Amino acid sequence: MGRSKDFESEEYIKESIERFYKSIKINDSGCWVWIGCTNEKYGLLRFKNKNIGAHRFSFEYIKKQKIGSLNVCHTCDYPLCVNPEHLFLGTHKDNMKDAKAKKRHAYGEKHYQQKLKLKDVEEIRKLVKSGLSQSQIAELFGIEQTGISAIMRGINWKYSSPDEYDIEILLKCLHIMIGKLNTYKLLKLYEHVKKSLL
Q1: What are phi and psi of 64, to 5 degrees?
Q2: What is the CA radius of gyration of the chain?
Q3: Beta strands at 24-26 and 32-34: parallel, antiparallel or unpaired
Q4: Are residues 149 and 101 in the same domain?
Q5: How confident is the model at residue 4 (pLDDT cuts 50, 70, 90)?
């Protein structure tokens, strides 16, 4: 049976740093690309009997800065990079804000749970302005009324901006609504649409 390792010893830390350096390849951008084990996104290094993020190891043991409960974020936006000069500390909120600013964040139609496309959101805004109720619009697009409300209040899809009225879209919406509304409601809708075009 082998001797148990002293994880806090200088010898163990030095050996781990050597293993770390054997698993990197420097590219033209100055990124230290992790070529060892990964979790399909980040590099992993076996350290103190568990797998830890290689970028976290780099920050704490190569850059020699404590992490605590913070995230280690990438200025280069390359998750496999472990160059300590490309890493900075931030909260989860900071990381999400950075991702959104750099257009890495899955928002709008890129989000895996999103049913709507940008074109749908533009149509929804125009339908609300034409006077159609949020409940009717929600039924048209197969979503909850609260989703329509969130769009109109700028909670969801706030990065997209509404366009001016588009006659083709309004006519398409009228066509969709035929069969869903009785004659009286259809005439009311027509009046709303007509006023919005004046």
Answers
A1: 60, 50
A2: 27
A3: antiparallel
A4: no
A5: low
Q: How far is CA 2 from CA 5, 11, 184, in A?
A: 9, 17, 86
Q: CA geometry: angle at 103 spanning 120 and 42, to 5°?
A: 120
Cα–Cα distance measured from residue 91 to residue 55, given in angstroms and rounded to the nearest whole number: 15
Q: How far is CA 59 from the centre of its chain?
A: 24
Answer yes or no: is pLDDT of 171 > 80: no
Work out the burial of residue 80: count CB atoms within 10 Å of its CB; fewer than 13 is exposed, 13-18 middle, 19 or more buried.
Answer: buried
How many percent of the chain have pLDDT more than 90?
A: 29
Residue type, 144: E
Q: How many CB atoms lie within 10 A of CB 178?
A: 9
| Domain assignment of residue 168, given as a range | 110-197
**Nearest-angstrom CA–CA distance, 107 and 79:** 19
3 part of a folded domain: no
Q: If you count them, how many residues does the chain have?
A: 198
